[in-house]
Amino acid sequence: MDGVLSMITGIAAVSAGFTVVGGLAYLGRWRTWVHKRAWSADRVFPTLFLGLGGMLLATFAALLETRLFVVTAVAIVLAFVLIVMSVLLFVLGVPRWMTPRWYRDVLDQR
User: Which of 37, 53, 68, 83 sees the fewest Cβ atoms within 10 Å?
Assistant: First the structure.
């Protein structure tokens, strides 16, 4: 059981990191990356969805052996959707309508 708990904790910790990075970027609390040429919206904004999906995956794994079938089913479906969406955003790019207003304003000023 310790190995499973370590795995769940690891998934949750890495996912929390992705969620914080993506959340700070979406909220506009972390904007310095916009001015660096190596970073783009396609690399930063999808981390929020990847992190949230990972957190739901950890929730699913933690609740898997309980009687909360509906919660675990919803968690795994949402985790799958969010992780696939983040991969598609990484690969295909983030559409303008999915970016926050502050980011669109920065692009319009250029």
Answer: 37
